[in-house]
Design a protein that fits this description.
With about 280 residues, this protein is an alpha/beta fold. Helix content is about 25%, strand content about 25%. The chain has one domain: Vaccinia Virus protein VP39 (Rossmann fold, 3-Layer(aba) Sandwich). Helix 3 (about 95-110) packs across helix 4 (about 130-135) and helix 6 (about 190-200) crosses helix 8 (about 240-250).
């Protein structure tokens, strides 16, 4: 029998009727999926809830995921030798997810008429996105990253990455033409709020580029429960419908939305959203 939850509110909460049961438990875990990084979680118990209306997936557990990013998330996710991991990704060239990301990103902004473009990449990790962009465009590129190991590595690449987060006062008086969030908003409790913050940083004709795991496609896979899209560090796993609603709630206007299978096999939804003036 499928168990339903009453209190959880999804992005499409406006569709709910009073006291309506709106989510169900879709997956339950008592141990980590085989390929999930080892976060040394002592009591591994969690559930994945699925919205009965838009299909959005959200995590339910007591694991302090935000603590991952205060410790050694970079080492757990990429290993101690960040340079080696970076070179491995670079060696893939056209076979890498990042190659395709940069290509579709620049294709979209090919006719963008703004001058002296400033871009902020949120949670830039190994900075592979900024590194490739730097080769192709004469923009002012900045990253913001909470993991000090990633920040130090970015300096080796001569890329400007600030050791902070998007909520920092550092950005109060700054404006960017583009804010990019590659696989970021699924890691936070309130994704729409993070998008709202990014909206405040945009110029009048600014855009936000978003990538998230595609839970709708992943859940249809026979091994969906063990796929990366549903790993413990993802507090949200989106569907096209739920990402659309999340963008609307943030006050941004959706310009393009697409679901893809990446070279690595990851199932991803990407979106371009613009500031409404």
């Amino acid at each position: 029998m499928v168990e339903f939850q009453k209190k959880y509110k999804c992005f499409c909460f406006s569709n709910f009727k009073k006291n309506q049961k709106n989510t169900k438990i879709f997956y339950e875990y008592s141990s980590p999926p085989v390929l999930e990084p080892n976060y040394n979680i002592r009591y591994y118990k969690r559930k994945i809830l699925k919205c009965n209306f838009c299909g959005h997936f959200s995590a339910k557990h007591k694991i302090k995921v935000n603590e991952f990013y205060k410790k050694n998330y970079s080492i757990i996710s990429h290993g101690k030798n960040l340079k080696k991991k970076f070179k491995k990704i670079e060696s893939l060239k056209s076979k890498s997810d990042n190659f395709a990301r940069v290509a579709r990103f620049l294709k979209y902004f090919n006719n963008y008429k703004e001058k002296d473009i400033k871009l902020l990449d949120v949670g830039c990790g190994l900075s592979v996105f900024l590194y490739e962009l730097k080769k192709k465009v004469d923009w002012e590129l900045t990253g913001v990253e909470p993991d000090i190991n990633f920040v130090r590595f970015a300096k080796q690449l001569n890329i400007d990455v600030i050791h902070s987060n998007l909520r920092s006062n550092i950005f109060k008086k700054k404006k960017f033409h583009i804010v990019s969030m590659n696989k970021i908003i699924e890691h936070v409790k309130e994704p729409a709020k993070l998008l709202k913050i990014s909206k405040k940083l945009l110029t009048k004709k600014g855009f936000v580029y978003i990538e998230v795991p595609d839970g709708g496609a992943a859940s249809k896979n026979k091994n969906g429960k063990n796929r990366e899209e549903f790993f413990v560090d993802h507090l949200h796993v989106f569907t096209k419908k739920s990402l659309r609603k999340c963008i609307e709630l943030s006050g941004l206007k959706l310009a393009r939305l697409k679901s893809i299978k990446e070279k690595s096999g990851k199932l991803t939804i990407y979106a371009f959203a613009k500031k409404v003036t």
